UniProtKB/TrEMBL annotation:
Entry keyword annotation includes Cell inner membrane: no
Domain Methyltransferase: 54-151
InterPro entries with a match to the protein in the record: Methyltransf_25 (IPR041698), SAM-dependent_MTases_sf (IPR029063)
Keyword list, A-Z: Methyltransferase, Transferase
Record flagged with keyword Cytoplasm: no
CDD domains assigned to the protein according to its UniProt record, in alphabetical order: AdoMet_MTases
Protein name: Methyltransferase domain-containing protein
MF GO annotations: methyltransferase activity
Species this protein is from: Streptomyces pseudovenezuelae
GO terms (BP aspect): methylation
Length: 294
């Protein structure tokens, strides 16, 4: 159950996904968003100053797990995910970055796999993994139950959809990304409804944490701002992201929007994301924190 770091970027189909194939995209995406994560972890460091055990619940390929290890040099970090190919990448990354001596992995589905942890958790980080659980209220309760007294739960959920393009890009009808957002919202609702044991829940994360017996300690949003002209790495990420949207929603788009998206993805087209100079990445992720007091 890897966390998705863009606007619901890996389409959430965690039953059919080939995680080995997805791993590279997830890793590239997380690396691109590193400035946002670093600011979030710096803010978090003022709330949970010296955690002994940190769990990254839904770690994916471990980019954020390793950032946690670097941000909290006295802590042991455990990356938890249901996809072993992603955990293999996480272990290799920890080795490469020199934090492998205090880095572990745990394979299994959230939240039940957390019962396999040997010790209570001082900081449990869940970055866009909670919304993969059918019963999010029960998921938060399970997260809370694994916390040590004084331990912090940090949920990254919500924010704003990423933007890559101006409203008017000179081809097709203006507002293409807003229309893609609407399709994603509808898809997300169907995905949530189709999860095992799915429960409709108001996405009031602080209220859900309070219902689990935690005391809310803060909510803050963090922005990624990579202005035009953007880097080759950001350009490749944008192309991959729009390509996924074309694969998933292509038949639901009208002919004009479909043609526009095809032009944006055609490396030979002067108007494509591979060539245009007005490309950017602007995204906002929100973090909610709460502490176990009892």
């Amino acid at each position: 159950m890897a966390h998705d770091d863009d606007t619901r970027g890996h389409q959430h189909d965690h039953t059919d996904i080939d995680w080995s194939r997805m791993a590279g995209h997830l890793q590239t995406q997380a690396e691109l968003f590193t400035p946002l994560y670093e600011r979030a972890l710096a803010w978090l460091g003022h709330k949970q100053t010296e955690p002994g055990l940190i769990v990254d619940a839904g770690s994916g390929p471990g980019v954020l797990s390793c950032l946690l290890a670097e941000a909290f040099p006295g802590a042991r970090v455990v990356a938890v995910d249901g996809a072993e190919p992603l955990l293999e990448r996480a272990r290799a990354r920890a080795e490469r970055l020199g934090v492998a001596d205090r880095f572990g992995t745990l394979a299994g589905e959230l939240p039940g796999v957390l019962d396999d942890l040997d010790y209570p958790v001082d900081l449990l980080w869940a970055s866009r993994s909670l919304h993969h659980l059918g019963d999010q209220r029960a998921g938060i309760a399970a997260f809370a139950a694994r916390l040590a007294r004084g331990g912090t739960l940090a949920l990254m959920e919500g924010g704003l959809p990423a933007r890559f393009l101006p409203r008017d890009i000179g081809i097709g009808r203006p507002g293409l990304q807003a229309r893609l957002d609407a399709l994603e919202e509808e898809w997300f609702a169907r995905m949530r409804a189709g999860l095992p044991d799915s429960v409709a829940e108001v996405e009031d994360w602080t209220a859900l944490m309070a219902a689990a017996g935690l005391r809310h300690t803060g909510t803050r949003s963090f922005m990624l701002d990579l202005p035009a002209p953007t880097t080759d790495r950001a350009r490749a990420y944008i192309a991959a992201s729009l390509g996924r949207l074309r694969d998933v929603f292509g038949e639901q788009l009208d002919a004009d929007d479909r043609d526009t998206l095809d032009r944006l993805l055609d490396p030979e087209d002067a108007a494509s994301v591979h060539r245009r100079a007005d490309l950017f990445v602007l995204a906002v992720h929100t973090v909610h924190t709460a502490v176990r007091t009892g």
